[in-house]
Amino acid sequence: MSREQALLTFLDRAGWGDASRHPIPGDASFRRYERLVRGDRCAILMDAPPPQEDVRPFLAILGQLRRFGYSAPAALSCVVNDGFLLLEDLGDQSFNQVIQARADLETPLYEAAVDLLVDLHNRPVAARLPVVDQVADQVADQVPDHSMPPYDAALLMREVTLLTDWYLPAFLPDLPDVQKAVSDWQALWDILFCRLDSRNPVLVLRDYHADNLMWLPHRNGLAKVGLLDFQDAVHGHRAYDLVSLLQDARRDVSPPLEAAMIARYLAGQRLRGTPLDETAFHRDYAILGAQRAAKIIGIFTRLSKRDGKDRYLAFLPRMWGLLERNLAAHDCDALEAWLDRTIPKPTRSRTRPNG
């Protein structure tokens, strides 16, 4: 049976076989999305083909977020082992789209997103989560619980090495002594990761930014913030999702707004009776901001070279700017020197690789 035939069978069993299907622009993964319309009802189809994709982490995190009372989409039906999910439709008003239409809503929307992080970071999350406990109709063979990965130094290093794995051969194919350059890069990051305060990890959604947050003004409180794209969630540092929100790869967040939202987050923690060492938090925010920027530079280059998705290259100059700003904020002279020596600034402004 072809994947399309299996999909039609899934839709028939879920009661949506007669719905009209409308493609939704995809993300940087192998997943494919469609909006299904049947009369006055809508739903979202996620087609996540194995082995490239695994819907179990998505379902596990979705269940946890909904147990907290957040607006993650309800799972209406699924076939876990085939990677088919039918989800509640949270609409098409992402934070990014709303702000483009109503610039006056930028600050209130970011405040709502920060307040949700404050709340989330004061909720304990188990190391193992059930996968299908909130699915109304699911078909699966013995689906095990999902083990939440730690966002530790090893994973941070694997991610930051994406820059040297993909950007260097794509943009600097003739770089001499690449092995030494990569070794030096990793050694410098080792030093930075050792400075992070890794105590009291929280649930990190990892893709917490304006295109993955939906504005649901008809709901109350924190439920006004709709949550998408959280299948890569981990246990990690509380600053990471704040960095994702305020150092967006796809849109500029002004420095004054960024500073105000960091201050709001820290004030929110104080109000909860969980005050943070603010000097250490700002240090870790800058380190993780630099790590995330370097990772995304590597990922966007990989999307171009491996997957033919060249549109992500347009975001490289913004990510280089964020990387440089974060390194300067934490006074990372040795890493800045590595960049100046290995990837001179004129190279960082390019949006087309060699070859």
From TrEMBL:
One Pfam assignment: APH
Annotated Gene3D superfamilies: 3.90.1200.10, Phosphorylase Kinase, domain 1
Superkingdom of the source species: Bacteria
InterPro entries (UniProt xref): Aminoglycoside_PTrfase, Kinase-like_dom_sf
Ranges where the Aminoglycoside phosphotransferase domain occurs: 23-268
Name of the molecule in the record: Aminoglycoside phosphotransferase
Organism the protein comes from: Iodidimonas muriae
